[in-house]
Amino acid sequence: MEADFEKNLSPEEYLQCGICNQQGTRPKLLRCLHTFCEECLQTKCKDQCIKCPTCDQLTEGDVGSLKDNILVANIRSKLEKQQEIRQSLQLVCGVCKASSFADFLCLLCDKFFCFNCFQNHEILLKNHRNQTEPVEKLKTLSSADFLKVLRRPKNLFCKNHEEEEEQISAYCITCSICLCLNCVVLEHKEHTYQSIKKRPSHGGESWSRPSPV
Fold first, then answer.
1. Name one GO cellular component term (predicted).
2. Are the C-beta atoms of residues 143 and 12 closer than 8 Å to each other?
3. pLDDT in tens, 145-177
4. Residue 53's Cα: distance from chain center in Å?
5. Whole-structure pTM value
């Protein structure tokens, strides 16, 4: 995806089906990782073995057995959100509904807020504070920049210490849950745990309480 954008392909061009050159529905993924819309493949491929129109590699099975390309579908959904923002002159606040127009979009909640509801939202959910964008700014972004905003890393906060905005930093292997540093020190210091940067795995390097001398 990144490489294609660097070649000056817009996201819309990247999502085009290689057969009809349109953003069709139900993008299907072939074994070679090329993607085409289901309707085009149904029309073009009648056999139990599908020949890729781009590279000629064969994929066994019929079109109905192919998996959806979730990545392409997800990007398409985000671009539809952008079109909603661009085309609507008066987006409605997701809290006040018809009583107020939207001024902000919370990227974590995927919900629009008017100015008053946005202030209350930030007070109640401090960890969402840096994950909101003004609607007027989003209207001016290119498709590629809009996707970058939605792809911005989101902080993960400990459920037990959200008010203190404690970020998750460790994984307790004993309890199979994610922890912040406070949880490790106060409640899980006798357990085996490891840095959240290392995916929990059997036999992997881990931390545990010091052995008695």
1. nucleoplasm
2. yes
3. 888 887 765 556 677 776 665 777 788 888 878
4. 29
5. 0.56
